[in-house]
Specification:
With 410 residues, the protein is of the alpha/beta class. The protein is built from eight helices and 21 strands. The protein starts with 15 loop residues before the first helix and ends with a strand.
Amino acid sequence: MGNIILQDDNEDGLDRRGFLKCMAWAGTGMLWVMNGGILKSYGMSQVIDRQTGNIKRGLDLPKGDFSFVQLSDSHIGFSKEANPDVVGTLQAAIAKINALPSPPSFILHTGDLSHLSKAEEFDTLDQVLKSAKSEKVFFVPGEHDVLTDDGKQYLERYGKETKGAGWYSFDSKGVHFIGLVNVVNLKAGGLGFLGDEQLEWLEEDVKRLSSSTPIVVFAHIPLWSVYPEWGWGTDDSAKALSYLKRFGSVTVLNGHIHQTLQKIEGNITFHTAMSTAFPQPQPGMGPSPGPMKVPAEKLRSLLGLSGVNYVEHGHTLAITDMPLISDMTNRVVIDNFSFTPKELTVSPGTKVTWVNHDEVPHTVTSTDKRFTSSRVLDTDGEFSNTFNESGVFDYYCTIHPHMTGKVIVK
């Protein structure tokens, strides 16, 4: 199993100030760049300046033949405490897309567009997506999109040129995209399900392709067994993947579990996407899946999107997963007059970033002058330091000396 962005199971609710503060970042995500046959991801916070909303000054991103963005699990209509404004977080994601240096050729939405399959929820989603600077949006349904009518309304809106329950394929710049549906005819206590008709279509669809063709498969429920006890997997995915073994490069994009997981198995790279609505627990780290309340400073790191910029090349594709803001393990949040985490352990050469979410100023000051201290950090101010040598580095806030922290480098 690849990287998991860890989540906090803290049951604290979000106060209004905290929620509005996190809204500025909720829905931010990754820009995936395909260059020389290598698919690499960049945290959107590495690309977009938080205060201006524009591309960071001096940033030089690789150029590509075309780009696309993945959105997932928008759950329009959800309004519980885990996120009372899912429209706002989706709009924040769209704003990040629109701030990219080049508009993506298209957007892939990997399901759960709505929360209860209501017409007004689909209407709201469509309205928000209209503001995205992208030529086209491709969809596959999530289980929340087919709740009331076996997906009839979904197909009328988004599946007019698809097969069966909504599966299809298309080609773009030498890459073959395959949209699969694994949320229809789900069995009690079971996993996602593709079905014989769709599997037969898939086998036929890829027969004509050269084995050197890069393949991108996108569906809602993961096509690998993330956690079967919660239905996080697809019952007949092995047969589907067997048709793709002859291809040198296969990338599988999914949603459903509302967190980033990556797995590489032979020629296939699996990547699950974060939600733009709310996080869910890590596999097995709770009584059941479902909306998870987290502190305000955590929410923005657990919602997101993914982007890909592609350059046609004969080499194998590979995904390098990066967190949506900065990796929370390398980031210290200043809030409620405390450093969180209070002790941070990193390896030599790691850059650590502090960000002040309090409404009063603070400093990050080395107690023994072993690293460069910050200036005064006002609200939303940031300070970074790269720790190249091993050791224990204590620090405190000179304005509020009871605030102390420690970076351990080993």
